[in-house]
Amino acid sequence: MTIEPTGNQTITDRETGTDIVKRGLAQMLKGGVIMDVVTPDQAVIAEQAGAVAVMALERVPADIRAHGGVARMSDPGLIREIMAAVSIPVMAKCRIGHFVEAQILEAIGVDYIDESEVLTPADERYHVAKHKFRIPFVCGCRNLGEALRRIGEGAAMIRTKGEAGTGDVVEAVRHARTVLGDIRRLQTLPEEELVAFAKEIGAPLELVRETRALGRLPVVNFAAGGIATPADAALMMQLGVDGVFVGSGIFKSDDPARRAKAIVEATAHFDNAEILAKVSENLGAPMTGINVSRLEAGERLAERGW
Amino acid sequence: METGPIKVGILALQGGVAEHAGSLRRAGARPVAVRLPEHLDGLDALILPGGESTTIGKLAKRFGLLEPLRQFAAVRPVWGTCAGMILLARDIGADPPLLGVMDIGVRRNAFGRQADSFVTHLLVPEIEEGATRPFPAVFIRAPQLVAASGRARIIARLADGTPVAAREGRLLATAFHPEITEDDRFHRYFLKIISQAGETGPPETIRASSAGENR
Fold it and tell me: Which residues contact A12 (CB under 8 A, 6 or more apart)?
């Protein structure tokens, strides 16, 4: 039986681009893996492996690092091809503060915009005013203050930055521990100390109050930057993040399809060591990686954004 | 039946699991995460949450959950929201069905991409006698319900008549996400379906009653 419209059971029209709708998509990505891809073929591999979304890029962070130069928004043609290749959500990056790149990504119709420190910042003082956009934004952070500043600007999802393109998970751990630790500290504070705390971390007071009441960020919080193995993904999940971004870690490894699938399985079963052992077998070599402690200060992408 | 709160499993492979758990607790039930077949033991009902249906479907397949979930749905109440509705449907378009236990047809992402995701307010008399308070329905890259046949019937529609929720006996499907709102009337409605299913008496064992199923 095909259903015939019968009408008039609702009383208001559709509202798009509201906070609940923008934050809601991130809620539906929880427990999942978002993978960087640079071609439609890679996007299909990611979808087949079970990625919840893909990040459409011209170069993965490891190559951005290697090539140097100014890293910008990807070619809209490439982003459209990737959108056409898969049925899962497609994200794309704009430079920090580059609201015109963001407008272009909105016009293309991507599902999420990542205002990302992986690209070269376009503005050294101001991030994009994100409330104006119908498309939701995800932004990076290293601590609670940075997370709440971005949410105050309209970010509907947060990711801890880690250090992209390194394959070294140490910064991802540092940033996740810092954000989650800041929240635990906030929860122990008496009411009268909240204004001073908000001032100290440079965050809007209302969001500080909301975070304290919720015991977590008011939006979904993924980990990013250096995750290269199933164990890395499960480590971040056990620390308490809602899901993971894997950038260079998949397509810079020996067997991307296999590694992608294993990281998806490890993220779903992050607290089951037997499953983690099984999915970690015979994956071939991970990306070679760069030890973060050897990076010069100027080479650290996480320090971009404020 | 043993005493204590109703135990409702939530398929916890990926997606909006914590949100359903919160709504269930507010409605007085006890949520239980289901990641492997053995986690279904002793549950009164199950929720298939929203998330990415391709991800959830693949993980369910890889970890041997599809058949146990079908057997569970043959005898106990199951509610699918968004991606969960896709899991339940017998017809999901070009791809083969995932669980294929409910007589509904759905189309993935038929409402469009994220830019088209929306909130609206629905009057759903089914969930509450004499309901006059509209229900806030959040549609996120939502699948569309395109057909209901057999015993499945539509219980909610948009203003333009588009069907967005269906019920078939103890099976419930919604294209939208009651779990991300503060309104827990849909969860209470599901708990009512569970207690009614309990009164009519659950089958002796899941295995015995699913023997006649064609899947």
Answer: B120, B121, B134
